[in-house]
Amino acid sequence: MNNTSSNHEVILKGVHLDLTESLKSIANEKVSRLFRHEERIVRIRVELEYDKTRTKDKEFLAKGHIEIQGPSLNATVATEDCLKSLDQLVDKLDRMIRRRSRLRRVKRKHPHAVEIPAEIPKV
């Protein structure tokens, strides 16, 4: 499912899991929170997966991929409930975006000196 709003795209995918309309709307609502923190996000892909071969407390897996200017952000969370996995995934991606933004701001406001090994001729 694709949801495009003002140059932002959300792609939801279910692996071994049928995505109901209510699950899609909940996922879109939670993921839209990420667009408020960063305007340079191009696309967010969310994969919700059910794996019955895993242990009971980690059978629902949520994977998130944020395509953004610069290196992409990826996160994975596994819990016993699909919505709980989605909540934890969005929280984890949110922390990653805020950390990235904070580091960019610190780097911009506190540039470090660069030493040039060669002599610069005086005019």
Protein model, in words:
The chain is α+β, with helices and mostly antiparallel strands and 123 residues long. The protein has a single domain (2-107), classed as Ribosome hibernation promotion factor-like (Double Stranded RNA Binding Domain), CATH 3.30.160. Helix content is 37%, strand content 31%. It is built from two helices and five strands, in the order ββαβββα. It has helices at residues 21-37, 82-109; strands at residues 2-5, 8-15, 41-50, 60-68, 73-79. The chain has a five-stranded mixed beta sheet with strand order 1-2-3-4-5, covered by helices on one side. Strand 2, helix 1 and strand 3 (41-50) form a beta-alpha-beta unit. The longest helix is centred in the last third of the chain and has 28 residues, at 82-109. The chain is elongated.
What is the compact description of this entry?
The chain has two helices and five strands. With 123 residues, the chain is of the alpha+beta class.
Q: Figure out the total of helices.
A: 2
CATH superfamily: Ribosome hibernation promotion factor-like
Q: Order of helices and strands, N to C? A: EEHEEEH
Q: What class, by secondary structure content?
A: alpha+beta
The total tally of domains equals 1
Major sheet characteristics: 5 strands, mixed
Helicity, as a percent range: 25-40%
CATH topology: Double Stranded RNA Binding Domain
Shape: elongated
What would CATH call the class? Answer: Alpha Beta
The CATH architecture is 2-Layer Sandwich
Q: Give the tally of β-strands.
A: 5
Summarize model confidence as the mean pLDDT: 85
Q: How far do the termini sit from each other?
A: 64 Å
The neighbouring-strand order within the major sheet is 1-2-3-4-5
